[in-house]
Design a protein that fits this description.
This protein is an alpha/beta fold and 192 residues long. It has six helices and seven strands. Helix 4 (115-131) crosses helix 5.
């Protein structure tokens, strides 16, 4: 049985009839409809422009939190993508997940390690190893970016550094604000 387009059809005895067969044939509409692609093209153009404006060629390595004021530095390097340990006045966060409260760490000052931080960093290391298990050229470098507030006591930063080392992260990078470029412009001749 052949495949036919849906719609009204005359009975077999009326197909050749000039009266009833022709009536149904004349009322038949074309099945080819055109799709208006102009709104779709406009929307895709807007999306492409939006995504291009949001694109960063260097990538966002650190998310600046409101409650963290970074110290200033005159000489530094750009940091690479690695897990971020953010230490604010109230909590310690690893890649967006809270692992400890600073007030709790002040109370139990007997130990240097922070178990929640170590566990989260080990999970990050396992995830990295799983992602790069087939890439022989990529070696584990053990980098972690520490983003600490100016007002956080050093004993807390020391405990974070110790916990990072225990978890297998031996290359610590501290995030600072670049002050070298601003002073160089002020000291330049003709900059008044």
């Amino acid at each position: 049985m052949p495949i036919v387009t849906p719609g009204k059809r005359p009975a077999k005895r009326f197909e050749k009839s000039k009266i009833l067969g022709g009536k149904i044939q004349r009322g038949k509409k074309a099945t080819n409809t055109e799709l208006n692609v102009i709104p779709m093209v406009d929307m895709m153009t807007m999306l492409v422009i939006f995504l291009l404006q949001q694109f960063s060629s260097t990538g966002e390595v650190l998310y600046m939190q409101k409650d963290i004021q970074l110290p200033d530095a005159r000489h530094g390097q750009t940091i690479e993508i690695a897990p971020v340990v953010a230490i604010s006045g109230s909590q310690i966060v690893v890649t967006g997940e809270k692992v400890a409260d600073v007030a709790d760490l002040d109370r139990d000052s007997g130990y240097l390690n922070i178990p929640g931080l170590e566990e989260r960093l080990r999970d990050e290391k396992k995830r990295w190893e799983y992602l790069h298990q087939n890439d022989v050229e990529k070696k584990w470098d053990g980098q972690v970016n520490i983003q600490a507030d100016k007002g956080v006591p050093f004993r807390i930063v020391k405990r974070v550094m110790y916990s990072c080392g225990v978890a297998g992260y031996f290359s610590l990078n501290f995030a600072t604000l670049d002050l070298g470029g601003a002073e160089a412009q002020q000291k330049a001749p003709g900059a008044g």
